[in-house]
Design a protein that fits this description.
five-stranded mixed β-sheet, about 30% helix, about 15% strand, alpha+beta
Length: about 375
């Protein structure tokens, strides 16, 4: 070999398969004829050729077949044992009775097949859903809330009415009773405009309330209640020292209110406040000489103009674009509160909510 392959020869120097045999000797497995070695040389013990004519080879094949038959027989026996023994009816035991036409055949036990479906939830507890209703076989069954039974909407009997009562009735025009007996507004020497309002209140009840159906569609319940509270105070001031009791007819006993003297009774709150999308910036039920929920035409126009100024200069996202517009808005609101108080009278208190300018005026400083 050349000099460049000496390192390769050194690596395999100890390998007997690569070592050069002595001169005159054959390579292992090459034979004397110089034939190439077989791939099975040296492994003769692992490769056995079976000759069909050799009786020993035939016995070995038969032994392997018997082993396979024995394994199959054992497998069949195991499956038969798992299925259970087969019980043959004996001569002493009668055969099982066949089901008749009137008697249905016995149900065969069915094995439960596991599924991935979640188990059905338990039936709802009706007591836990009181007031909300729960779905049963016949649809959603409304349940009465526990607090409903605490509200008594039954009308107060006339024999229980002591003093002067103000309440509407479907079969009477006058809404006044004194110690349970019907009286006319003129008998109390009330102002003519109060008498007209009393009759209007009674007409509204009879036109918008049905004894069987309750409030009819398009009924103005808020106006009815606001006018009732306003009239009760006006009747109390006109009647003098006589106590006045208001009963809102649709609420029955739950709508009974005692009207105290003018100098001690709490006023009703009306709020002046803006909101995006609201045309009239007054919140609360009230009555003035101009009507239910209304001021004079001049004051109504000012209120609507104030709301339009808010919508034009107060962006819902960016806020006020001009600090001067915010200051003018707050100044004009103070004037509106004074005019509203004059028209509402002592039965109401006007509250101002200027949420839209909070933080704006403080940041800009006083007007120059």
């Amino acid at each position: 070999m050349g000099q460049g392959s000496d390192w390769f020869d050194d690596i395999f120097a100890g390998d007997p398969l690569r070592a050069d045999p002595p001169q005159g000797a054959d390579r292992p497995g090459s034979g004397s004829g110089g034939e190439p070695p077989s791939v099975t040389d040296g492994f003769e013990d692992l490769f056995v050729d079976f000759d069909e004519d050799d009786p020993q080879a035939g016995d070995a094949g038969a032994t392997a077949a018997d082993a396979r038959d024995t394994s199959s027989a054992r497998l069949d026996a195991a499956q038969t044992a798992a299925a259970g023994p087969r019980v043959e009816p004996t001569a002493d035991e009668p055969p099982p009775a066949e089901p008749t036409a009137d008697e249905p055949p016995p149900a065969e036990p069915s094995a439960e097949v596991p599924t991935d479906e979640a188990p059905a939830p338990p039936a709802p507890d009706e007591a836990a859903y009181a007031g909300e209703g729960w779905a049963g076989d016949e649809g959603t069954v409304p349940q009465e809330a526990p607090w409903v039974s605490d509200i008594d909407t039954s009308p107060v009997p006339h024999r229980e009415m002591t003093g002067l009562w103000l309440t509407t009735e479907s079969d009477r025009e006058s809404p006044l009773r004194l110690d349970g007996q019907p009286i006319e507004p003129e008998e109390l020497d009330l102002a003519p405009e109060i008498v007209d309002r009393l009759l209007d209140w009674s007409d509204q009840w009879r036109a918008q309330w049905d004894e069987a159906q309750g409030w009819l569609p398009r009924a103005r319940i808020g106006d009815y209640e606001a006018l009732g509270h306003w009239l009760a105070r006006r009747v109390k001031d006109g009647a003098g020292a006589v106590e006045v009791t208001l009963q809102l007819a649709h609420l029955g006993r739950a709508g009974v209110e005692r009207i105290a003297a003018a100098d001690v009774r709490a006023p009703l709150v009306v709020q002046l406040s803006n909101a995006h999308g609201r045309r009239f910036p007054v919140v609360g039920d009230f009555v003035t000489d101009s009507g239910v929920g209304s001021f004079t035409a001049e004051l109504n126009a000012k209120l609507e103009g104030w709301a339009e100024h808010f919508a034009a200069h107060m962006d819902p996202v960016l806020g006020w674009g001009d600090a001067r517009a915010a200051r003018d808005h707050a100044t004009f609101a103070g004037e509106l509160v004074g005019e509203m108080t004059d028209e509402l009278g002592p039965d109401y208190r006007v509250e101002l909510d200027l949420w839209e300018v909070l933080g704006v005026l403080e940041a800009q400083g006083p007007a120059r």
